[in-house]
Amino acid sequence: MKQWRGSAAGERPSGGVPPVGARSYWLDEALAADPGAACLALSGDVAADVCVIGGGFAGLWTAYELSERAPQLGVVLLEADICGAGGSGANGGFFSPSWTGLSALCGSLGESGGVAYAAALADMVNELDAWVVRHEARIDAYHEGILYARAGEWQAGPDEETFRLLEKHGYADRLRCVNVAEARSVADSPRFVGGVITPDLTVIQPAKLARELRRVLLERGVRIFEGTPMLRVEAGRPARVVTPAGSVSAAQVVLTTGAWAITQPHFRRAFAVCTDFMVVTEPIPQLIEVLGWTSHMGVADLREMLYYLRTTPDGRIAIGGGAMGIVYGGRIEGRVLSSPRLAEMAAHGLTWLFPQLEGVRFHAAWSGPMDITSTALPFFETAPGGNVHAGLGFSGHGLTSTKLGGKILSSLVLREDDEWRRMPVVGRPLATVPPEPLRWPLVKSVAWAFESGDRAQEQGRARGRLPRLVTTVYGQYGAQNGAIRSE
Ligand SMILES: Cc1cc2nc3c(=O)[nH]c(=O)nc-3n(C[C@H](O)[C@H](O)[C@H](O)COP(=O)(O)OP(=O)(O)OC[C@H]3O[C@@H](n4cnc5c(N)ncnc54)[C@H](O)[C@@H]3O)c2cc1C
């Protein structure tokens, strides 16, 4: 095992991560590379065929699909901050399928529904390749797959039922078991004891994707108003979307405000809001020599609160996971977004997986909110009036599912009875979450049980009795409600 020798005297020790930034490293980098055309705040009253609310991937892909399928429609997109300011500009950039969770998907959606949904997500990975070429998008995309590594005997891989389902439905080649040598040949961690590889994953610079989507939409005539929060939607035909200094009258409205939708009474029990943290290192010139990580293959381990990590074109490693913040009610603010402990947990993952990197310097830390449903599956719902739609609950797995979601929401808007509208995730969430004040302590205790159990096993100890009890109870709830791990 080669050793990283990057830390000079007086430098920040590993684990000493910078304060958590208000914007992600990705978004800072994307804006520095290309701030894009200005999209001023809405002032006055405008009319549109469709008003999309929220400039994350769900809203951007919906506007894109509409511009593709019905270019004659006048589309307005409202974003409270700037496009990509939410989870979409902050995530790990794993544009990933759901093959490892296929048995859980089938548990939630039925066998044919689960397989159809997983196959559609995998198709999105290939579609992204074509989209990048077509629009000459600069999003640092590498379609090289992912290693889900078992970082210790205590980490289980996908269950047997998942492999059986893959075999039965003709997808056996999408998940390949690898031994310790092959796992370590991807990136040389002494923790790896094996794992599985899928080729169907692209790592991207997520904020660049959000900004490039914004560019393409502007070129297609979509009117984007940033710094423009929706205050309320008044039902009617047309519906009226009210903002601080104006309004949009639109025949159809699509709500894609992600975690922030928790403040709308209708969605209060649709999902819990959690925060996830990431850190990125300084460039590591000896990355290839020290870790042998010569590809842009993504890596994740298989603990309950999994770590996910990837390289960047300039030789950094970005890593997230290991722990989560839990938002009380609708308060997506304060410590739950800036906790030094949660950022340090993400950083800890890097030197635990790769002790050779002890002393590596971290350049930035950030976080973002996620709207996590009981099943970790999104839902696509139309209000009784028929002209207000919502696509929410993308959980920790929103990159492929927001791209698919854009197709589903467009089909709802265009009233097309097609394969997208028939996806098994269309409708109310499959299960509700408990209301506050119960939700916060319940979700917090599950997160604590996962994290502390993982930590004990990292240190060669058994998971404690209480974490095991909480995990078992959650597992039983999951078996009844199809809950799956957030990836
Ligand atoms: C740290 C982190 C790592 C992740 N890693 C991955 C990963 O590697 N792979 C993966 O698939 N998923 C990952 N995810 C999840 C993924 O980022 C999300 O599922 C996805 O981005 C959700 O997109 P969205 O458009 O629904 O929400 P968002 O991107 O949050 O967009 C919602 C937008 O709505 C805006 N908004 C809010 N309120 C209003 C209002 N009233 N009016 C107008 N606009 C409003 C917000 O400003 C925001 O821009 C990660 C998430 C985080 C936080």
Question: Your description of this structure?
Answer:
This protein is of the alpha+beta class and 487 residues long. It has helices at 25-33, 57-69, 102-109, 111-134, 160-168, 180-186, 206-219, 287-291, 335-338, 340-353, 398-414, 439-458, 465-481; strands spanning 44-53, 75-78, 94-95, 142-143, 146-150, 176-178, 194-198, 202-203, 223-225, 232-234, 239-243, 246-255, 272-281, 298-301, 307-311, 317-321, 325-326, 362-372, 379-382, 388-392. It has a domain at 436-482. The chain is built from 13 helices and 20 strands. It starts with 24 loop residues before the first helix and ends in a 6-residue tail after the last helix. Mean pLDDT is 94; it is low at 4-15 and 483-487. The protein binds flavin-adenine dinucleotide. Residues 53-59, 78-81, 85-88, 90-94, 96, 229-230, 256-260, 276, 278, 308, 320, 368, 370, 394, 396-399, 402 line the site of flavin-adenine dinucleotide (FAD).
What is the secondary structure topology, with strand pairs?
Layout: H1 25-33, E1 44-53, H2 57-69, E2 75-78, E3 94-95, H3 102-109, H4 111-134, E4 142-143, E5 146-150, H5 160-168, E6 176-178, H6 180-186, E7 194-198, E8 202-203, H7 206-219, E9 223-225, E10 232-234, E11 239-243, E12 246-255, E13 272-281, H8 287-291, E14 298-301, E15 307-311, E16 317-321, E17 325-326, H9 335-338, H10 340-353, E18 362-372, E19 379-382, E20 388-392, H11 398-414, H12 439-458, H13 465-481
Parallel strand pairs: 1-2, 1-12, 2-9, 5-14, 12-20
Antiparallel strand pairs: 3-8, 4-8, 5-7, 6-7, 10-11, 11-12, 13-16, 13-17, 13-18, 14-15, 15-16, 19-20
This protein binds flavin-adenine dinucleotide (FAD).
